[in-house]
Amino acid sequence: MTDLDPVGSDDEDRDDDRADDEETPPNMARVFDFALGGSENLEVDREFSAEVDAMMPGMSALCRAHRRFSAAVVDHWAADGVDQFLELGSGLPTVDHVHSRARWVHPGARVAYVDWDARTVAHARRLLSGVDGVSVLHADVGDAAAVLTAPEVRDLLDLARPVGVLAVGVLHYLLDDAAAADAVRVYAEALAPGSGLAISHLTSVGRPDIHTWATMNHGGWSYAPRLRGPDEMSPWLEGFTVVGPGWVSAPHWRPDAPAPGADVTGSGLWGVVARRG
Ligand SMILES: C[S@@+](CC[C@H](N)C(=O)[O-])C[C@H]1O[C@@H](n2cnc3c(N)ncnc32)[C@H](O)[C@@H]1O
């Protein structure tokens, strides 16, 4: 398991996640929030976002593409009766995030969010304080056993019933292929029939600049992703039945969308949704 920075006391967290000074580095979850039109971001995040977009046009659009995918998937699962969700690598629960989206259909929907970034977790807990049926776990999603047995997950979700598991924009940060496969297998084995797994994952197929992003020196930004394709990830779906069009450009995933050619994404993201049989 990765050593995680501790999440501090409530008071420290409040100061920490609102601090807007030169010492505060940009934070991925807040950069995402900015790209999504949210208000939970700082000047450093907005500047960083502009720098990245200037270097690689369309990076902000990628954040929105992830969100279009997760919204379509949550809508699909909720319509199918799923009212419990586990979001791996959740970032900040701000703009149209899982619990708000699911609660349009199931007002009592339960959602466990997991992120490994201490500042993001503290910020998310502050945003969700007073919201029932939602938890935020500070953990590495690569340590699936720890996630599944943590009280934030175990006491909130009933794993004997269907759960929708979202791995949206996170598995490409599990750099070791075998460890990533193993983690997905442990989540899969814990899920009841009728559960769902949704993955969106960075790719350079149709977007060669993503390869540049993945291989460049990221300096202070510690998130250099591992790009993978369906050939590498399809074995992760053993025990599941793929739902809808299969591997597609993630923001274009819809349960009734036609299956495109195998080499098409262009959005920089593969997306797939599968159901535990
Ligand atoms: C690209 S953002 C996606 C956020 C969210 N899933 C969404 O769609 O808006 C990725 C998030 O995953 C978190 N993350 C990256 N690697 C992680 C890991 N190994 N365990 C837990 N969280 C991780 C980051 O801190 C970040 O908040």
TrEMBL record:
* Record's signal peptide: none
Q: Which InterPro entries match?
A: SAM-dependent_MTases_sf, SAM_dep_MeTrfase_SAV2177_type
For whether the record's keyword set contains Transferase, the answer is yes
Region of interest called Disordered, as start-end residue ranges on this chain: 1-27
The annotated regions of Acidic residues compositional bias extend over 8-24
- Source domain of life: Bacteria
Q: What is its EC number?
A: 2.1.1.-
Recorded coiled-coil stretches: none
User: In its UniProt record, which GO terms are filed under biological process?
Assistant: methylation
Q: Which GO terms describe its molecular function?
A: methyltransferase activity
Q: Does the keyword Transferase apply?
A: yes
Tell me which UniProt keywords the record has, alphabetically.
Methyltransferase, Transferase
Supply the name of the protein: SAM-dependent methyltransferase
Instruction: Name the source organism.
Output: Actinomycetospora aeridis
